[in-house]
Write a structure and sequence with these properties.
Radius of gyration: 20 Å
Order of helices and strands: EHHHHHEHEHEHEEH
Length: 242
């Protein structure tokens, strides 16, 4: 077993293990190409930016009548209407969404070296994937990158009453693995969800994956215990905890 005192490692998914931001950028480029025969470049850029903002501001409550796919088709429909001033075009909006979603899922992958690291860590630690987001969307990503077998447990925020940084979802994770907070490490790219949530839940160490080399803003809710550029640097952190 582990010699670093850490029994369990919780990993975020998006922009921690997989490059969701990069996949999003390429998916938007594909939609821009799709729209290229119908609108001018300035309008296309504005439509895609409005979709991006709607996605960031998205609020979705699962129901039998409206799926997350329906909601996101509507994002595209509204973005096109707002910029082009045309009437509703659900068909074009659905084409945009299908192109964006399929491109994104095709591009998402856990890099080979990261997968190898997780396989090694799984031999000595309990690994748990803890990701925020709508259940359908996150489960589709997990299936696309074929990562469920790398973890002892997978927890999707959208399937619970509260997401990160709420302590309740961390407590659920502790119970799933049969560990205490001080047995655990939280690894993720978000100071506001991963690091704050881990700190509030009392984990032994929080590790901020800061691939962009950003400086933590003064208003950041909490400071990470460790900062790394990529999860591949995690063994160095574990060694420091000996």
């Amino acid at each position: 077993m582990c010699s670093d005192g850490v029994k369990a490692i919780f990993f975020d998914l998006d922009n921690t293990l997989i490059d969701t931001a990069g996949a999003n950028r390429t998916a938007i480029q594909k939609v821009q190409e799709l729209l290229g025969t119908r609108f001018g470049q300035e309008d296309i850029g504005s439509i895609c930016e409005r979709f991006r903002v709607k996605l960031l501001q998205e609020s979705y409550e699962p129901s039998e009548d409206v799926t997350i796919d329906d909601v996101r088709v509507t994002h595209w429909e509204e973005a096109i209407q707002e910029v082009a001033g045309k009437g509703p075009d659900r068909t074009l909006a659905a084409e945009c969404y299908s192109m964006w979603k399929s491109t994104r899922l095709q591009l998402l992958a856990i890099p080979g070296p990261v997968r190898a690291l997780l396989e090694d860590l799984r031999e000595t630690h309990k690994l748990l994937l803890l990701t925020n987001g709508v259940a359908q969307t996150q489960r589709e990503k997990i299936e696309a990158v074929r990562c469920e077998g790398l973890f002892h447990a997978v927890v999707v925020g959208g399937e619970h009453a509260e997401e990160k940084p709420a302590s309740s979802i961390f407590c659920h994770c502790f119970q799933l693995l049969g560990v205490g907070p001080r047995d655990c490490m939280m690894v993720g790219d978000s100071l506001n969800t991963d690091i704050l949530g881990g700190a509030n839940a009392g984990v032994r160490a929080t590790v901020w994956v800061n691939g962009d080399g950003r400086t933590a803003p003064p208003e950041a809710p909490v400071r990470p215990d460790y900062t790394i550029a990529t999860v591949l640097e995690l063994p160095t952190v574990l060694a420091a905890l000996h």
